[in-house]
Amino acid sequence: MFGMRKGTPEGVFKTLRNALDKRDLKYEIDEDNQAIGLSVMGDDLPIPTVIQVNDNHVKFTAILAFKAIEASYKDVAWNLNLLNTELTFGSFSLNPEDGIVRFDYSYIISNAKPTEDILIALLKMVWTTVDEHDGDLKKIVPVARDIDNPMFG
């Protein structure tokens, strides 16, 4: 369509892995789900991140070190919504099943073939956004938690 060449999910996943390898970023792979897990240290908190490639998009999810108590879900969700109005890309959300706050950004690949530089720029954007707003998040969800997902060691 429109002369654009589509990148296959497998090709995009390979490009992503090459980009991370060239930058000596350590990660874990879930080949079955074409997902990669890695973590960086922000100014104050670690930023564990999962990147998943599927047929239509690459999804970047930063799983944050904040867990809301159930009684605060309504207020937390409302305040995250207010924070999201300030963002140009991506959004913070509250998972109602476990109270964990996360940041998500998706990049459409259905008619694109992203380069290593684009994928790394998007990853850095996710990390920068989370890092810039960690103070706001601490005010919205003051309960910090340990990352207990084995993917992030």
Helix content class: 25-40%
CA-based gyration radius = 16 Å
- Share of residues in strands: 25-35%
Cα distance spanning the termini: 43 Å
Poorly predicted residue ranges:
149-153
Structure notes:
It is built from four helices and six strands. The protein has a six-stranded antiparallel sheet with strand order 1-2-3-4-6-5. With 153 residues, it is of the alpha+beta class. Mean pLDDT is 89; it is low at 149-153. The protein is elongated and about 45 Å long. 33% of the residues lie in helices and 27% in strands.
Keywords, separated by commas or semicolons:
153 residues, alpha+beta, 6-stranded antiparallel beta sheet
Secondary structure layout:
Elements: H1 9-22, E1 28-30, E2 35-41, E3 46-53, E4 57-67, H2 73-84, E5 91-94, E6 100-108, H3 116-132, H4 134-140
Antiparallel strand pairs: 1-2, 2-3, 3-4, 4-6, 5-6
Helix pairs in contact: 1-3
Quick recap:
The protein is α+β, with helices and mostly antiparallel strands and 153 residues long.
